[in-house]
TrEMBL record, chain A:
It is found in: Cytoplasm; Lysosome membrane. Residues 14-41, 82-93 have a biased composition (Low complexity). The keyword ATP-binding does not apply. Keywords: Cytoplasm, Lysosome, Membrane. Residues 94-110, 831-842 have a biased composition (Polar residues). GO terms for cellular component: lysosomal membrane. The lineage of its organism: Eukaryota, Metazoa, Spiralia, Gnathifera, Rotifera. Pfam families: FNIP_C (PF14638), FNIP_M (PF14637), FNIP_N (PF14636). GO terms for molecular function: ATPase inhibitor activity; protein-folding chaperone binding. Residues 546-556 have a biased composition (Acidic residues). This is UDENN FNIP1/2-type domain-containing protein. The keyword Cytoplasm applies. Residues 48-854 form the UDENN FNIP1/2-type domain. It comes from Adineta steineri.
UniProtKB/TrEMBL annotation, chain B:
Keywords: Cell projection, Cytoplasm, Cytoskeleton, GTPase activation, Lysosome, Membrane, Nucleus. Its main location: other. The lineage of its organism: Eukaryota, Metazoa, Spiralia, Gnathifera, Rotifera. Residues 60-569 form the UDENN FLCN/SMCR8-type domain. InterPro entries: FLCN/SMCR8_DENN, FLCN_DENN_C_sf, Folliculin, Folliculin/SMCR8_longin, Folliculin_DENN. One of its GO terms (cellular component) is nucleus. PROSITE patterns: DENN_FLCN_SMCR8. Belongs to the folliculin family. One of its GO terms (molecular function) is GTPase activator activity. It is found in: Cell projection, Cilium; Cytoplasm, Cytoskeleton, Microtubule organizing center, Centrosome; Cytoplasm, Cytoskeleton, Spindle; Cytoplasm, Cytosol. PANTHER family: FOLLICULIN, FOLLICULIN FAMILY MEMBER. This is Folliculin.
């Protein structure tokens, strides 16, 4: 059984097998029904050496030029015997620690002299630039220069730093040496200070770093809070009517956020970087190197890196912050960086190699090719786990667990909202959403991003995020509960359709395929047709461009008028009159998917069309704004659209012909797309659920930790919360500012479920039993006696759906019940006491945004475990203030207070979208 | 902003220049091409921006002599791609320009064919691959180009970086391969060594020419010897963009449609099939109906329904409501393609909403007896027949429809079967009969009277007219037995309770009812499941036991659940049966193994 368990849960055999053996017997003596085994592969941790991570930190400023500040390659631990001998060296550390790169005076560099290699530099030889510092009791030595520094500086900053001093991110990959490098260049926000003030900056942790509203790395949350947020909101409102119920009512959260991303992106584009030059930039890079013979390992890591980039960058951000804070502190920067580097290495290592729960339950159940037997086995397994945890010994434990998880990890919500139409593809009890691929192609969001949102349950706006941690000493129990939880955490899953990119190959033999493709393209070109009757923008109009906004609008309309004037000349007519009988639009029907579009698809296409129409509108709007403000835009690029004075001379404008080319689809030529097996390094849904381990890692949204020292875990959870809500904490969610960070701590040993939130960090709220969840558990009891396990899965889904409908009903009820007071009530019912102040501030958009800010997860209050009296009292008043409506709801829907608390968070997510509709 | 691709060149004279860029935008294809103004405007912007006067007249900075814009439409994914040498989209232009300068001038890659990803939030992110093409006439016999993929989402770009790199390399290889061939041809001269004519074997040797002293500018189309290079690169870029859109697919899962929707769909399918047999040809010829026609159909529907009473055509009267509407369709010779309202347009709660709610409140008021109301609803929800005997003194049938829609709302779709008393056929199966007392029934009325006298039917008499709030009289004709104390189902209590709440609007009302319906339907599902399992069926014969299983309070609830099994869809029932079969088989195998 032990080995079976290992196979099922994909454990790191070295760490847990021993304990497993003991606990396995223990649980069987508890008359635990044995878990039905699933034949799954064992977890094989990837091979990764964290010493292969190299960190480079440069500083570049107008005054001093490019300087190397830190290079982990030249770092060396000084043997303790060495220490005493070189103590007298210490005095020189401070002065030497910041020798200019390659030792050349910076002015040389700035005047454009070719960079001189360090070896040829006399200055460097005379003064062997070695800096030493102590870190955690060890003394380190940082030698200056390794030979490749010059190259790396070029990679990071570019070869023409004087011409273009850009900030931003870069990724370089190379085959020899086998390495991947990610680098960031950013402007120092802290102005160059005199060293005297530096002390304050060292004490300031990353979270207290001053917020620069012009910080280029975090524009998204700024524009959300600033004026552009208003325009975003207004465009959202208009859109929602068009999108109708499909997006906002029925697919709560999920689609909405995906759509919202586009809206926000459109705004993001309009953000302008301030024109000022950065006086000082820091360039930081980390390089992961592999041995030349480790190509497969490298490829694996590269793929992992690409998919997990948001999380990795989140960790990388910490190094950047450390460098920025300490940049003026000559003595401590190396130590600080080294500290961060170690953490970073550990984080990356953990993220990469930590054992995952191979095949979470939800993931398996949604697979297309799931056999009946396999599914039954799974269902039985889930049932037996539920059974195990609902024995009298555990009391309401499972109820509390599910209440907490289902209340905060809301990815399940969209999986129970019924689709409006019959889907082409059904998996047992779910319908695969048909609209995603089309949505993806014109919303152009990253599916991985969508997964992150799902996994962290960052649905509302501003987002809160949620993680679940299970602790205990019995790894077998941990595993089972973990497995059960993985059924309720329901991210989308990804399919990689890697089209074979090999259109040709370097070898002679395959050049035939190249010829073939070329022939194919030639055919296409031959069949291309001209699109006629497109009139160019009249130059008379374009002269007035940018004079007046109204004028431009007029322009647009004029053109439309012109075009609609000769309506007889539609494309249709024209193309038919051409020699070739093909119609322009029909040329594109070459795709082989076409015949599959049947009547049944009407609904989908309708949904899509409404979406498309809307997006189209947005694009048009966007373009209009672009056209409207050519004076701003064209300044840097005067070459194209601004009418030049020569223009009147050029009388005959050669009009370009517009050709329409059919779709080029090399797939027809035997370039079949290869579908890849999903592995954790490609799919965040598989990756961010970790198996049983010994330490806490913030990257995983669901993890089980085998430990007896819970306090330590709590401490790291709280630390993570603090970090999450800082400016950089949400970097992995496209730089969004995270409003609240929540961790559900499930302790199997204590049989307790506690909620920790960044709002009041040290106070845990004990999750209470809810009546809403109870049916889910009861179904399983029924199964034990009467029904096959398969039925139970169905019934469980139905119960979840009931909750969803109940939440909908409550929301509508609350809305109806106090329409005029609704916005206020929503504040008080969902918000905390602090937000009551904002009620008085008038009925503006602004307030609404603030209310959403406050409508949080303010963890409900009663019966705090360690109740600080003052806090509790403020909370009860908050609830009392709000409670009239809440009481109504509770009475009307026959809920318990804990039920309402459970629903509150769901309501909040649902409400975020509703709010916009009310406006 | 959507992703775009660009081909750039480092000109000896002018520095980095953009040769071609391909952008994409969402595009909906309109079935009847009337809506093309939008796209024409879009195109015309490009033609305008192609004015060459702003552009440097330099061969090297031009892609090909043929100045063509190329556009492709991907109708499946609703995308339009267009390639031009410069874009009217100012933001994109700036980003491409920026990417161009950076990729050709500034960024340094570690290896020759290693792409670089660079960018920031303001200028977008770019994956660029710089490469050189052989050209005999160029300085140093080669020219520097770069391919860029630009998009604003860095993590998206990162996640497809590997794929894009491969594709870019392919594209580069194409160009280089062609350029090499041209170079080979230009760079050497064929010499006939067989000058004397002595040797029989004609061997050709090549002499390499010395490169020209003064390098000359050439177009890329000359370098690769392809006059249609614009098209080719456009095709490649479109391929690249489409591939990047579809490289990673997200699979989302929704719940199946609710039983209500499924049963509705199934009912529709049944009628479609019936109809299919006789009107197959007609239907297929007119699959797409323009909006105006469908509105017309709707109008006529309402109109005809008011006329139903006086229509001499017995065909109308003798068919059930559903097929009646189908008849209209055939008469209109159009296909009514609305997906869920094929039968229920008249009785859908959402189409009356507030009006229906108010009417029902009035109904309660006129009934003026809470016991009666309970009695009606109680019988209604557990499946007894309800007969509305109405006298309509108004022109419109709206009111009666609105009232019916309320009753309809209370039951799951599958349980609701409405028949107008003018129709003989469905009377026995129907549980909701609308009986207009003004109609003189010419045909045999025996079944109707039989039904009217049925003990289980509840007859309500209504009089509508224009005076006094439209609903003048509501009278319960079959009075409840005074002695019998049938427990009231919880569901009915909920409904009645809802009407005491004055603040409720129709939306909230509907969603609360829906919630409860879902709840009881789920119980009905469970009931159905138990019925399929022998062990369960024997174990839970006792009503009390069943009540605990379903977590309900009284016998009426149980009756409700039993009746509501009718509201389950065929699809669900089939699924359960299959699952059960599978389970049985499994158990048999297990037994055999033992």
């Amino acid at each position: 059984m032990n080995s079976i368990l290992n196979r099922v849960f994909g454990k790191n055999p070295s760490s847990t097998s021993k304990k497993n053996a003991t606990t396995g017997t223990a649980s069987s003596s508890n008359s635990t029904p044995p878990l039905t085994p699933l034949d799954l592969p064992q977890w094989i941790p990837p091979d990764f050496n964290r010493d292969n991570i190299r960190l480079l930190v440069f500083s570049d400023s107008d005054d001093t030029g490019l300087q190397l500040i830190f290079d982990s390659k030249t770092l060396r631990v000084v043997p303790s015997t060495d220490n005493d001998n070189n103590i007298n060296n210490k005095s020189s550390i401070a002065t030497n620690s910041r020798t200019s790169l390659s030792g050349v005076p910076s002015s040389n560099y700035a005047t454009g002299k070719p960079p001189v290699g360090p070896s040829s530099n006399s200055g460097a030889r005379v003064n062997p630039a070695i800096s030493r510092f102590t870190h955690k009791g060890k003394q380190y030595e940082l030698r200056k220069f390794s030979n490749d520094i010059r190259n790396y500086a070029d990679y990071i900053f570019g070869t023409m730093p004087l011409l273009f001093k850009g900030t931003g991110m870069k990724v370089h990959t190379s085959k020899s040496p086998l390495q991947i490098m990610m680098s960031r260049v950013f402007a120092v926000k802290l102005a160059d200070r005199p060293d005297g003030i530096v002390n304050t900056s060292t004490t300031s942790e990353p979270d207290t770093a001053p917020v620069n509203p012009l910080n280029p790395f975090l524009p998204s949350h700024i524009n959300r809070s600033l004026s552009s947020g208003v325009s975003a909101a207004s465009s959202t409102i208009s859109s929602i009517d068009i999108l109708g119920e499909d997006l906002t009512n029925h697919k709560f959260g999920r689609l909405y956020r995906r759509w919202l991303k586009v809206a926000n992106r459109a705004i993001k584009q309009n953000q302008r970087q301030p024109g000022r030059r950065h006086r000082r930039c820091i360039g930081i890079a980390f390089i992961v190197t592999f041995q030349q013979d480790e190509l497969s390992k490298y490829k694996h890591f590269e793929e992992f890196f690409c998919t997990h980039a948001p999380l990795i960058e989140n960790h990388f951000q910490k190094i950047m912050t450390a460098a920025e804070v300490n940049i003026n502190e000559r003595n401590s920067i190396a130590a600080a960086l080294l500290d961060r580097l170690f953490t970073f290495k550990d984080d990356l290592y953990t993220l990469y190699t930590r054992p995952r729960l191979i095949y979470p339950a939800w993931y398996i159940l949604t697979q297309e090719h799931l056999t009946m037997t396999k599914r039954r086995a799974l269902a039985q397994q889930l049932c037996s786990i539920i059974d195990l945890f609902s024995t009298p010994k555990y009391g309401d434990f499972l109820n509390c667990v599910l209440s907490a998880v289902l209340s905060y990890q809301l990815s399940w919500l969209s999986t129970v909202s019924p689709s409006l139409i019959k889907s082409k593809q059904q998996v047992l009890f779910k319908a695969k959403a048909d609209y995603t691929s089309s949505m993806q192609s014109f919303l152009q969001y990253s599916p991985l991003w969508g997964q992150l949102i799902d996994l962290f349950s960052a649905y509302s706006q501003p987002p809160y995020i949620c993680r679940t941690v299970i602790v205990g000493t019995d790894s077998s129990l941990l595993n089972r509960l973990l497995y059960l939880m993985s059924f309720f955490i329901r991210p989308s899953y990804l399919t990689y359709k890697n089209p074979n990119p090999n259109l040709s190959d370097t070898t002679d033999e395959q050049n035939r395929s190249y010829k073939k493709v070329r022939l194919y393209i030639d055919e296409l070109i031959a069949s291309s047709t001209q699109i006629q009757d497109i009139e160019p923008y009249s130059p008379v109009h374009s002269i007035h461009d940018g004079d007046d906004d109204d004028d431009d609008e007029q322009n647009l309309e004029d053109d439309i008028d012109i075009l609609s004037g000769d309506e007889s000349n539609t494309n249709h007519n024209h193309t038919t009159s051409l020699n070739q009988p093909q119609e322009f639009y029909q040329l594109t029907y070459t795709s082989d998917d076409l015949e599959s579009t049947s009547v049944e698809d009407n609904e989908i296409s309708q949904l899509l069309n409404s979406l498309v129409i809307h997006i189209d509108q947005m694009i048009v709007n966007e373009q209009r704004t672009q056209i409207q403000s050519p004076t701003i835009h064209s300044r840097p690029t005067p070459s194209v659209t601004l009418p030049s004075p020569i223009q009147p001379v050029v009388n005959s404008l050669p009009t370009k012909i517009l050709m329409s080319l059919p779709l080029f689809e090399p797939n027809h030529l035997g370039h079949e797309s290869i579908s890849l097996n999903n592995d954790y390094h490609l799919d965040l849904g598989l990756s961010l659920i970790s198996s049983v381990t010994n330490s806490y890692s913030s990257d995983f949204i669901l993890q089980a930790i085998e430990t007896s020292n819970v306090n330590e875990i709590i401490r790291s959870i709280c630390a993570q919360h603090t970090y999450d809500t800082t400016e950089n904490g949400g970097i992995f969610l496209d730089g969004e500012l995270i409003d609240t960070s929540i961790t559900i701590l499930i302790n199997i040993d204590d049989i307790s479920v506690n909620l920790y939130s960044s709002k009041h960090n040290d106070i845990a709220r004990k999750q209470e039993r809810t009546t809403l969840i109870q049916p889910i558990i009861e179904h399983v009891h029924l199964a034990k006696q009467l029904l096959p396990a398969d039925f139970v899965l169905l019934n469980m889904e139905d119960s979840l759906q009931e909750i969803y409908f109940q939440a909908l009903a409550i929301l509508k009820y609350m809305k109806a019940n106090n329409r005029s007071l609704y916005s206020q009530e929503s504040v008080s019912s969902f918000g905390d006491s602090a937000s009551t102040a904002s009620i008085t501030s008038g009925d503006t958009d602004d307030r609404h945004s603030r209310t959403t800010n406050h409508t949080v997860t303010d963890l409900p209050t009663q019966s705090l475990m360690n109740s600080v009296l003052t806090i509790e009292s403020t909370y009860t008043t908050a609830i009392d203030n709000s409670s009239e409506l809440v009481q109504n709801v509770i009475r009307k829907f026959q809920l318990q207070r804990s039920d309402y608390m459970f629903l509150k968070n769901i309501l909040r997510v649902l409400e975020t979208e509703q709010m916009q509709m009310i406006n | 902003m959507n992703a775009s691709c660009a081909l750039q060149h480092f000109c000896d004279l002018h520095g980095p220049q953009t040769l071609l860029c391909t952008e994409q935008r969402a595009h909906i294809q309109n079935a009847n091409d009337n809506d093309d103004e939008d796209i024409k405007t879009f195109y015309s912007q490009y033609i305008k921006s192609e004015n060459p006067q702003g552009k440097v007249e330099c061969k090297s900075c031009t892609l090909s002599p043929e100045s063509a814009l190329v556009s492709t439409i991907d109708s499946d994914n609703h995308m339009l791609y267009i390639s031009s040498s410069s874009t009217p989209n100012q933001d994109l232009f700036k980003n491409i320009r920026n990417a161009c300068v950076r990729s050709l001038n500034i960024e340094k890659s570690v290896e020759v064919d290693a792409p670089i990803l660079f960018g920031d939030d303001v200028n977008g992110y770019c994956l660029s691959l710089a490469f050189s093409c052989k050209d005999f006439h160029a300085r140093g016999s080669q020219r520097l180009y770069s391919l860029c993929y630009i998009c604003s989402d860095k993590y998206h770009l990162l996640s497809i970086m590997k794929l894009l790199s491969d594709c870019l390399r392919q594209a580069v290889y194409w160009l280089q391969y062609d350029a090499n061939e041209t170079y080979e041809q230009e760079g050497r001269i064929k010499v006939n060594t067989n000058l004397n004519g002595t040797s029989t074997t004609t061997r050709t040797t090549y002499i390499f020419r010395t490169p020209p002293c003064v390098p000359s500018q050439r177009m890329l189309s000359d370098i690769v010897h392809d006059s249609k290079i614009t098209f080719r690169i456009h095709a490649l870029f479109v391929w690249l963009l489409r591939m990047s859109n579809s490289a990673i697919n997200e699979s989302l899962f929704d719940a199946l449609p609710t039983e209500e929707q499924t049963t509705k769909q199934e009912r529709k399918d049944v009628y479609d099939n019936e109809n299919l047999s006789n009107s197959l040809t007609k239907r297929r010829t007119t699959t797409i109906v323009s909006r105006s026609t469908s509105i017309h159909v709707q109008d006529s529907l309402l109109l005809s329904s008011t006329l139903t009473n006086y229509t001499p055509n017995p065909g109308y009267l003798s068919t059930s409501l559903y097929s009646t509407i189908d008849n209209y369709h055939q008469n209109e010779n159009g296909y009514y393609d609305d997906e869920d309202d094929f039968d229920s347009l008249q009785y859908q709660f959402s189409s009356y909403g507030y009006e229906a709610l108010k009417l029902f409140e009035l109904f309660i008021k006129k009934l003026n007896n809470i016991k009666y109301l309970q009695y009606i609803l109680n019988n209604w929800v557990i499946g007894n027949r309800l007969i509305l005997k109405y006298t309509n003194r108004m022109d419109s049938k709206d009111l009666i429809c609105a009232l019916a829609s309320i009753f309809r709302l209370f039951l799951p779709d599958g349980c609701f079967h409405l028949v107008e008393a003018t129709n003989q056929k469905g009377l026995h199966t129907a549980n909701f009969i609308l009986y207009d007392t003004d109609i003189v029934l010419t045909n045999d009325t025996s079944s109707l009277t039989e039904i009217l006298n049925d003990n289980n039917s509840i007859v309500i008499k209504l009089i509508f007219d224009d005076i006094d709030d439209n609903l003048r009289v509501v009278k319960l004709e079959t009075l409840p037995l005074t002695r019998s104390e049938i427990p009231i189902p919880t569901y009915v209590k909920t409904i009645i309770d809802l009407f005491t709440d004055s603040n409720l609007n129709e939306e909230a009302f509907e969603s609360i009812i829906t919630q409860h319906k879902i709840k009881y339907l789920n119980k009905a599902k469970l009931h159905f499941q138990l019925g399929r399992c022998q062990t369960a069926a024997t174990l839970s014969t006792n009503d009390r036991q069943q009540m605990t299983i379903f977590n309900v309070e009284n016998m009426s609830d149980l009756a409700l659940i039993r009746f509501w099994q009718k509201g389950l869809s065929q699809a669900y029932k089939t699924q359960i049966r299959i699952l059960k079969q599978d389970d049985n088989q499994h158990q048999r195998i297990q037994k055999q193994q033992k």
